[in-house]
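Archive maintenance. Older records in this collection stored only the sequence; we are now back-filling the structure field for every entry so that each record is complete. The fields below show one back-filled record exactly as it appears after the update. Entries are processed alphabetically, and Adenine DNA glycosylase is next in the queue.

ARCHIVE ENTRY
Title: Adenine DNA glycosylase
Organism field: Nitrosospira multiformis
Length field: 383
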Amino acid sequence: MSAGGDISDSISNFFAIRLIHWQRQHGRHHLPWQNTRDAYRVWLSEIMLQQTQVGTVIPYYRRFLQCFPDMQSLASASLDEVMAQWSGLGYYSRARNLHKAAQRIMSEHGGTFPEQVEVIRQLPGVGRSTAAAIGVFAFGKRAAILDGNVKRIFSRCFGIEGYPGEKHVETQLWQIAEALLPKRDESPIERDIEDYTQALMDLGATICTRAHPRCGSCPLRPECIAFRDNCVGSLPTPRPRKILPEREAALLLVVAQGKILLEKRPSAGIWGALWSLPEMQVNENVIEYCMQLGINVRLISRMEVFAHTFTHFKLWIYPLILQVISRSPGHLSPEALSQPGNQWVWMMPEDALKAAIPSPVRKVLLQYTSQTEPLEILAMADN
Ligand code: SF4
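Back-filled structure field:
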């Protein structure tokens, strides 16, 4: 099998026919976002499925739809409400972009989801592959997808070496994806493009998996170069190892009358628009730091240090539990915090766990709430 744009019609037909038949017999047909042409639902599922597995997405997808059943309800919701429904699913820029895109669809497209793949691609948070998937499943468009699973299948089948995140490798894989698309005039099968696209997704998720590919059950095995050459385990070429820079930060769990202090993060940057614990440099003096916020605190305890890995760096987190002894009049008081647009809030830990918080903050809170002793000490001291 030759790669890139040189794929012959017979190879292209082999792929389409094998994949479509396999999907109809062995693929997934009852996922909550299947069997619909509702572009809103298709779009929501495709965004949630970016970098996230089906099993994780399903409960979030259902809950999100209950809260925001259509474009209008999503566009008119506050960002906080949207983030709260997304909380725990990770990659929060997806939720911010979803909200922004819903507002744009209302204002620029009269509330109707655009049909053209090129127009879909201009929506915030929608890349080339996601736009194609929405176009296929919502409108039956003939467009090629190339998500992580599909890159893996093509790298193996066509023996493409090189890390798929590199531009020249990705370009080659896109050429393959385009060349393999079933042609409309040669494909009399009803819904062929939907089944072909779903087949690629299902094959990558269930057969041609990263760690344990089941080549014995794979419909593409007769033409697969990696299988023939016994190099399935080394393709696709892994991301070149690079040592992530490391940073440190202290997260402050400030407690007053059983409630904890949360700060809204700016919308740009890590954990954008999420509620987080106040953060400071590890070498700063925590008492002085809190004085600047207008609160006088005492250090109750230090929790276990742990690491959280972002794409570009590793963050070592030092959680500190602090108790408020007194506060300057008006500073961070419930009255001051009830002002609209306020970036601070006191919340009961159990309510904070339901809010839009990043996963490391969730971890700190869960650890804190599981320790009954500190809670009792604090509650007594508050009275
Ligand atoms: S034969 Fe194996 S490596 Fe090749 S596509 Fe199928 S599962 Fe993947």
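Update note: The two ends are 76 Å apart (CA to CA). Residues 274 and 357 are 5 Å apart (CA to CA).
Entry marked complete.
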